[in-house]
Write the structure tokens for this entry.
Amino acid sequence: MYICPVCGYNELDEKPYDLDGNPSYEICSCCGFEFGFDDDSEGESFESYRTKWLNKNAKWFREKKKKENWNLEEQLKNINIYFKNNK
Ligand SMILES: [Zn+2]
């Protein structure tokens, strides 16, 4: 299992990028980021994608995969982001 560099989800089936930097084209079940697509020439960075995703209440891309006790703040710690949800 691999960690999504955008949202910290730690159950990616494939490594987002191999050693040569080739993307997996996997879509993160949590934030919906597609490696090799969302980060292409348009220049969407992980940070800007993450910010938009958080602004949309961190909605899951595949809601079914969401665990009952899922905690956004805990997940973001996987990528060393300390996020405070003000709600
Ligand atoms: Zn993600």
The first helix runs from residue 46 to 55. The mean pLDDT is 92. The pocket of zinc ion is lined by residues 4, 6-7, 9, 28, 30-31, 33 (CB under 6 Å). Residues 7 and 21 are 19 Å apart (CA to CA).
